[in-house]
Amino acid sequence: MLQKLASQPSSNQSHLDWWQREDLCYHNGELVFAGHPVKLLAERYGTPSFVYSLDRAKNNLTRLHEALNESGFGGRYRILYAMKANRFAPLLTGLKLSGLCGIDACSPEEVEHAIACGFSPSEISFTAGSLTQKEYEILAKYEDLGMNCDSIHAIRSWGNLRPGTKMGIRINPAVGVSREGNERLQYAGRAISKFGIYQEQFDEALDLANKFNLKVTDIHFHTGCGYLTSQLEQWSNVMERCLWFLDKCEHLNRVNVGGGLGVPHQAEDGILDLVAWGRVLAKYFGNRDIKLDIEPGEYIMKDAGLLLLQKTFLERKSDTLFLGVDAGFNIAPEPAWYDLRFLPLPLIAPQGSINPVTVVGNINEALDVWYKDALLPDMTEQPFLALLNGGAYSSSMASNHCMRGKLKEYLLI
User: Fold this and answer.
1) What is the DSSP letter of 224?
2) 342 alpha carbon, distance to own chain's centre
3) Fewest CB within 10 angstroms: 58, 249, 321, 381, which?
4) What is the pLDDT of residue 174?
5) Nearest alpha-carbon partner for 305 in 61, 117, 114, 86
6) 197 HSE (CA, 13 A, CB side)
């Protein structure tokens, strides 16, 4: 058994070590995560491996609970973990046992997996589009499942199977929010998207629900991902736009504002101000007689995981020093797909000079770059590397491209 260490981050943090915190820092010159020396984890478990801290995930959830309670929502909110971020079964079971969250699911398979990990259907909120008839029939078997329909077709399909029941509607306010305005991370905005029912269709949606005697008790919207403090003003604009939909629903008792809360990827990002975030929620929903659902995935899990990699080569080509590792973007696609850089961390604390190094993977594609011009010490004698923020939207999005999809996952408790 690995022995946990008591660690403290450096008190003199610079732009290079902004990420250090009590459970992730250098201790006696070695990188420590969740009380474990990361070098020992890499040597014992091999690479590529994802390691997750259950304590960090629970601490992230606890901060959300505190922010919601301080904003006046005590007793009338739920936090629903968006399990598409990370569906590792031991993690889901640990979250269930914590009692800190329910589940946001977006496929029948996710619903079944969550139930297998201990969650009851009443603890699961479901939202997805483009379902087959068979998938609707599977979902209809769970009487207490929270169903959100995100199209006219979905309302009709659900009404045929479950007339006279309660349901939710996913709406699209036509405005979105994302980290640094990254439109690839938005679910709503200038471009018409597949997500949700727009304002011009909403009366039709309510009329159709009424024909099936479906009582619309929930409004759901998820408008983007990864927003931080500087994007809260835009997120406030989204909340305001959504009020029009709420006021049209006679039986409304719950609003789901989605997830999207982000974590920093670089020093200048800063940590999301949860007090300010809570004030936005209180402004629009604090005086309404409704309950609130929040469905974060990234905020709960992203900084609760590291991706451990082994160095394969270190070589200068023209004016660029490349460091190759034994895994590529196929097992953690966000850097390539969304330009979200995963900061590389040496397992031995930097000493001496720091130089720009471009960290690349083993996939035969030009976009297989983990981090361009990362500032790293001399890595000649260091066999391993850790990538920050590997806990969400990494292993769950992995593929076997180039038949290099092999990875391992471990939960640290």
Assistant:
1) B
2) 14
3) 381
4) 82
5) 86
6) 24
Is 168:256 a contact under the CB 8 Å cutoff? yes
Please, is 318 exposed, middle or buried when counting C-beta atoms within 10 Å of its C-beta (0-12, 13-18, 19+)? exposed
Helices 274-285 and 232-246: angle between axes, nearest 10 degrees: 20
> Would you call 273 exposed, middle or buried from its count of C-beta atoms within 10 A (0-12, 13-18, 19+)?
middle
Q: Which amino acid is at 375?
A: L
DSSP 184: G
Contact 281, 73 (CB under 8 A): yes
Q: Say if CB 58 and CB 98 are below 8 A apart.
A: yes
CA distance 211 to 213: 5
| Residue 75 DSSP SS3 | coil
- Beta-carbon count within 10 A of 194 CB: 10
Report the relative pairing of strands 30-33 and 24-27 from DSSP bridges.
Answer: antiparallel
Single-letter amino acid, residue 290: I
Q: Where are the domains of the chain?
A: 46-53+306-412, 55-301
Looking at residue 225, its pLDDT comes to: 81
Rg (CA), the chain: 22
For residue 132, count other CB atoms closer than 10 A to its CB.
10
Over the stretch 20-53, which tens digit does the pLDDT of each residue have?
999 999 999 999 999 999 999 999 999 999 999 9
SS3 194: coil
Residues 91, 87: Cα–Cα separation, whole Å:
7
- The third-level CATH classification (topology) of the domain covering 46-53+306-412 is Lyase, Ornithine Decarboxylase; Chain A, domain 1 (2.40.37)
Give me the helices (H) in 117-271, please.
133-140, 152-161, 199-211, 232-246
Q: Using pLDDT thresholds of 50, 70 and 90, give the confidence band for residue 189.
A: low
Residue that the structure tokens 């995560």 belong to: 33
State the CATH class of domain 55-301: alpha beta
Per-residue pLDDT, 11: 42
